[in-house]
Design brief:
CATH class: Alpha Beta
Helix content: 40-55%
Shape: globular
Bound molecules: ligand AR6
CATH topology: Leucine Aminopeptidase, subunit E, domain 1
Strand content: 15-25%
Number of helices: 5
Distance between the termini: 14 Å
Oligomer: single chain
CATH superfamily: Leucine Aminopeptidase, subunit E, domain 1
Strand order of the largest sheet: 1-6-5-2-4-3
Radius of gyration: 15 Å
């Protein structure tokens, strides 16, 4: 079991699965979602359109990765801070359901963006704690998780949180 921190653009990674912070329609958007669709090409959107009913908050669905270096994209929908109940549990479910779906598809190396911490405004510290706790609890032998931070603030927070978890272990 490996958990690593990376700063940069998730779309460049040659992992088994890249996680997308999507919305329930799965029809694209801005932020990391926009970047994944732009880099991966229209094949990803075509595959998303085939998923009838979209994806609920906290859920996860899988598609081709199109032109990306990754094998698959796992789309999850984070909670919008202040707009719904049980945001913390729903955010944890995003990480847990992505790990489960990856396992089901034999995908061992999984890269996560900082789900909900962009336009969905989840507080970054709280989101990092939930992400790290959920992954530590649910990662299985053979799985490798990469937390990919795009902005400096998230990178600093993750670095500190991961260190704190290591010290506790
Ligand atoms: N690689 C890695 N992380 C990135 C990248 C990238 N290329 N680009 C942005 N981030 P957001 P959300 C980080 O807003 O808050 C979309 O429109 C960014 O710094 O992408 O879950 C969807 O369609 C931030 O930390 O996702 C939804 O409607 C993190 O990705 C909505 O936004 C998440 O920011 C989802 O909002």
């Amino acid at each position: 079991m490996v958990i690593e921190l990376i700063q940069g653009d998730i779309t460049t990674l040659a992992v088994d699965a890249i996680v997308n912070a999507a919305n329930s329609s799965l029809l694209g958007g801005g932020g990391v979602d926009g970047a994944i669709h732009a880099a991966g090409g229209s094949e990803i959107l075509e595959a998303c359109k085939q998923i009838k009913g979209g994806c609920p908050v906290g859920g996860a669905v899988i598609t081709t990765a199109g032109k990306l270096n990754a094998k698959k994209v796992i789309h999850t929908v984070g909670p919008q801070w202040g707009k719904e109940d049980n945001e913390e549990e729903k955010l944890a479910n995003c990480y847990i359901n992505c790990l489960k779906l990856a396992r089901k598809h034999d995908l061992h190396r999984i890269a996560f963006p900082n789900i909900s911490t962009g336009v969905y405004h989840f507080p970054k510290e709280k989101a990092a704690e939930i992400a790290i706790k959920s992954v530590k609890k649910h990662i299985k032998p053979g799985q490798e998780v990469f937390f990919v931070c795009f902005d400096d603030e998230n990178y600093r927070i993750y670095k500190r949180e991961l260190q704190a978890h290591t010290d506790q272990a």
